[in-house]
Amino acid sequence: MTRPAAAYWGRMTVHAAIFPSLAVRAERVTFADAVRDHQDEIYGVALRILGEREAARDATSATLVKAYRSWDRYDQTRPVRHWLLRIAANEAITIGRARTRERAHTAPADTAMDVPAAAPAPHEQAVAREERERVRSAVAALPELYRVPVVLRYFSDLSIDEVAALVGRPASTVGVQLLRARALLRAALEAS
Amino acid sequence: MGERDLLEEGVLRRALRLEGDERSPRFDPADIAAAAARRPVVGNVLVAAIAAGSVAYALWATVSAAAPTLVADALDGSIALVASAAVPALMLVDALQQPVVPASVLAALLVATAHELRQRKEAPPAFAS
How far apart (Å, rounded) are the C-alpha atoms in residues A184 and A175? Predict the structure, then answer.
């Protein structure tokens, strides 16, 4: 481990030690806290962008490793969630592109998504599950340019401004991309 | 449920939500830290290249700083050697390109020799019997 664990996992600022009443404001998020609080969302974003659990696990691991290495440079005045989601989206994009290249070299494209095996369920649940899978498949089939904003907007519940800040595009551009994505989704759902 | 319903924001959000069997595997911060400490192969190559470059630069700087006169003397000697060989070579080349005896003098000598030989042939020897 490159950093002393005791100093790293539980560190607080001097302000918190001197002024306990300000501890809530002054307390810094530790890396362990960030992992505990956000790993599910990071994995979810990666899964919805990549559509495969193994790839999502790799992207989550890469995200957390990168975050650990950059933790000292991270501006703690900004939300750690957004910072982690930005890394996660970039890692998912990188892994997705690499897997696309691998598939192009090895085998015909397999469009089947990594979906859980259908468990016996009542009719309504089965219908709901089928509709979810249709929507997920349509989202997974979106071009990367539209898929990432859609996942950040509808999975992570970020505002358009927050999505724009994460992907580094103007908010107006993100808004247009979301509209375009919904049009593509509509076409895909009508065709399926 | 129609296609328009499937595109409602609430429906989209519910569809993308993680289900119970899609939960994230647990990531241990200590494992992440251990993985972060392992330097990738590209990093090792980069570090080795930087180290080799630094060593080469330090060696060159040391030689340049410690023995500047040696390098200057060697340079001067080589220049003098080239110059001593170049001076006679240059003279030879000049002589070949610009002969000292003009061609007109040679031509006059040839004409005078031919005239003298013709006169000797025409005039009888004075002591013939």
Answer: 14
Residue A91 reports pLDDT greater than 50: yes
**Chain-centre distance for alpha carbon A153:** 11
Half-sphere exposure in the Cβ direction for A98 (13 Å, CA): 9
Residue type, A11: R
Q: Summarize pLDDT for B57-81 with one digit per residue, the tens.
A: 988 888 777 777 777 788 889 999 9
At B40, give phi and psi (nearest 5°): -70, 165
Of A3, A116, A185, the CB nearest to B7: A185
Which among B13, B19, B32 has the least Cβ separation from residue A64? B32
Q: Does B11 reach chain A within 8 Å, measured CB to CB?
A: yes
User: Does residue B27 belong to the interface with chain A, where contact is any CB pair within 8 Å?
Assistant: yes
Give the span between the Cα atoms of A62 and A56, in whole angstroms.
10
Give residue for tokens 């501890």.
A23
